[in-house]
TrEMBL record:
Protein name: Cytokine like 1
Coiled-coil segments on the chain, per record: none
InterPro entries linked: CYTL1
Domain of life (superkingdom): Eukaryota
Residues spanning the signal sequence: 1-21
GO biological process: positive regulation of transcription by RNA polymerase II
Pfam families tied to this protein: CYTL1 (PF15153)
Lineage, broadest ranks: Eukaryota, Metazoa, Chordata, Craniata, Vertebrata
Organism (species): Molossus molossus
Keywords assigned: Signal
Length: 135
């Protein structure tokens, strides 16, 4: 075996070098967790037939740039409905975590762009891309 072949073979067997992504920022953590919570709430609503108490929970569509999000998070955690439903307990834990991140750790990293509380009552419609009409 040639002397340069053995190191090359060992390098190939070791696999690609580990890539370390940049750690998440406070803002990216808040944004990701708010999206995760909104998705989990929508999934929870789909189970309403098996857990009727879900219909009485406060709506939870989050926009971390809306000042009302803090009150929305507090209301959701304080709601007495569904006390013994594991999926709701997990969601409330995530909501508490997001509230703490926004209110304590990342207070200076977030800019509130609105205070429209009614905007947090319904999901934000997905934007659609219009087809290119140049033809």
């Amino acid at each position: 075996m040639t002397p340069w072949l053995l190191p090359l073979l060992l390098l190939l067997l070791a696999g690609p070098p580990a890539v370390r992504p940049a750690p998440p920022t406070c803002y990216s953590r808040m944004l990701g967790l708010s999206r995760e919570i909104t998705g989990d709430f929508q999934s929870l609503q789909a189970t309403e037939l098996s857990e009727p108490c879900v219909r009485y929970l406060p709506r939870l569509y989050l926009d971390i740039h809306n000042y009302c999000v803090l009150a929305k998070l507090r209301d959701f955690v304080a709601s007495p409905q569904c006390w013994q439903v594991a999926q709701v307990d997990v969601l409330k834990d995530k909501v508490r975590k997001l509230y703490t991140i926004i209110n304590s750790f990342c207070r200076r990293d977030l800019v509130f762009l609105s205070d429209d509380c009614s905007a947090l009552e319904y999901p934000v419609p997905a934007t659609t891309v219009l087809p290119d009409r140049h033809g």
